[in-house]
Amino acid sequence: MGTVRDPLEIARGELGRTESPAGSNRTKYGAWYGLDGQPWCMMFVQWCFAQAGCPLPHRTASCGELLNWYRRYAPEKIVTAPVARDIVIYRFGHTGILESAADGMVTVVEGNTSAGEIGSQDNGGGVYRRKRSQTQVKAYIRPYDRYEEETMTGKEIYDALSDYLRKQPVPGWAKEELAEAVKLGITDGKEPMGMVPRCQAAIMAKRAMEAKK
User: Fold this and answer.
1) Which is it for strands 95-102 and 126-133: parallel, antiparallel or unpaired?
2) Secondary structure of residue 211 in the 3-state scheme
3) How far, in Å, CA of 110 to CA of 126, rounded?
4) Is residue 117 within 8 Å of 130, Cβ to Cβ?
């Protein structure tokens, strides 16, 4: 798996999104999957992982079918110690992406559910964060063991910025004084637009003070 985004963060970004029109089961997740107008909790999960760049290995809109696929082809991915980003399969035919599990409860971002206990839990109208008893969970599926952030390391940022600055021209107002600084031995004049660490800046300042004596 290459560099991907976090499917849980993508799911969180959808919180509060509802069907349009209400009660129609019509969402962008169903449209993406190709079954718009049908119950969409699993389509929501599939969409989140696909948007993250790590699509699930089995494409289905059925909670039971996904679980059966893993039981047959990747049973080691069905886990008993849940962690964030696991797929939660409920006993009442529903699913979501796990945020946390503690004290016998799970907190899950779910599509196609209701905002509270009033309303359908497995065919509701939106994406909501729900807290439920672990006794309602049938299985936890961990499609991937880890997720890499789509971010640059500190070194990559430093190298990219250094390369960018190095290619910039010396401003006209600085050319004359830069030439004088080279003559005084304060700097060697190489890569004049490069980044300057604090130790180098301190040494240059020390040299400038010594040159004035």
Assistant:
1) unpaired
2) helix
3) 8
4) no
Amino acid letter for position 92: F
Residue type, 167: K
Please give the structure tokens belonging to residue 5.
């985004």
Highest mean pLDDT among 122-126, 156-160, 207-211: 122-126
Token pair of 80 as six digits: 């008993």
Residues in CB range of 139: below 8 A, 6 or more apart: 67, 78, 89
**Whether the Cβ atoms of residue 106 and residue 134 lie closer than 8 Å to each other:** yes
pLDDT tens-digit series, residues 63-90: 999 999 999 999 999 999 999 999 999 9
Residue with tokens 């992406």: 97
Amino acid at 47: W
Which residue type occupies 143?
P
pTM for this model (two decimals): 0.69
H-type alpha helices, 34-187: 41-51, 63-73, 154-166, 172-183
Q: Is 84 helix (H, G, I), strand (E, B) or coil?
A: coil
